[in-house]
Amino acid sequence: MQLIVDCGATKTDWGIVEAGKVVRSVRTPGFNLVQTPEETLNAILNQAAKEIGPGVEEVHFYAAGLVGESPVDLGKWFPGAPIEYASDMLGAARAVCGHGPGVAAILGTGANTCEFDGKDIVWKVNCGGFILGDEGSGAVLGKLFITDYLKSYMPQDIYDEFQEQYKLDYITVVKNVYGSQAPARYLGSFAPFVLAHYDKSEYAQELVESNFRHLFERTLSQYKKDLPVGVVGGFGYACKDILARMGKEYGVTFSRFMSTPNEGLAEYHAL
């Protein structure tokens, strides 16, 4: 039994794989092997190991920013199983490109991209995080929206509906953005509200498409035009029709959209 782990800022998906297929999934909160407090990390890993159960023979662990040796030995939770530690970017590339060349894009709470040659990541545009970049991500869409909300720079009906639903004041927003451990996750939590208004509000439509235009113009345009682009991430998957339509305008061909990479990684590791 293989275990394929996709660890992100918001959630972690633990896919139990048999005969090249994900037969069962376990979801836990997301974590960062370097930044998450040890007590919190241990609690999440204990929960995952308990729900997965015995019999894990091989682990492929993909996490944001992880390259090379992991600061935490997962062998404590999965004894005897060989463990591969790799970045979520490599996982995304393997999932959407398989063993062939292409461009992979992670579009979730954050955003990241790379060029993949079928084996390795050969080049990438730096993502910069939600403050310096992350164009096309849920966190950036949330940042654009909440900035307008704080300045009352949006249609009154949307402002009133958001205020009624979230009941946020200026101090609460500022504390959560500048004082919480996961500001990107907080900002990304507003993206579903904006997407829900995409088809009925010119304001929401412009906000969503402006975010994606920056992705196309500042990031995807730097990759080879003849390479297909595969997208991984819940936010990107939710916006697949918008991205596919806008891609035609920019000459970008999308090959695959996946909410999580585990199915694609199961196929990759089966070969």
Describe the protein's topology.
Elements: E1 2-7, E2 11-18, E3 21-29, H1 38-52, E4 58-63, E5 83-87, H2 88-97, E6 102-107, E7 111-116, E8 121-123, H3 129-132, H4 138-150, H5 156-166, H6 170-179, H7 183-188, H8 191-196, H9 202-218, E9 229-232, H10 234-238, H11 240-250, E10 254-258, H12 262-270
Parallel strand pairs: 1-4, 4-5, 6-9, 9-10
Antiparallel strand pairs: 1-2, 2-3, 6-7, 7-8
Helix pairs in contact: 2-12, 9-11
Please provide a brief summary of the model.
With 271 residues, the protein is an alpha/beta fold.
What this model shows, in words?
- Helix content is about 45%, strand content about 20%.
- It has about 270 residues and is of the alpha/beta class.
- A five-stranded mixed sheet has the order 3-2-1-4-5. Strands 8-7-6-9-10 form a five-stranded mixed sheet, sandwiched between helices.
- Strand 6 (about 100-105) and strand 7 (about 110-115) form a beta hairpin.
- Helix 2 crosses helix 12 and helix 9 (about 200-220) crosses helix 11 (about 240-250).
- The longest helix is centred in the last third of the chain and has 17 residues, at about 200-220.
- It is globular.
- The two termini are about 15 Å apart.
- About 40% of the residues are buried.
- The model has no long low-confidence stretch (mean pLDDT about 90).
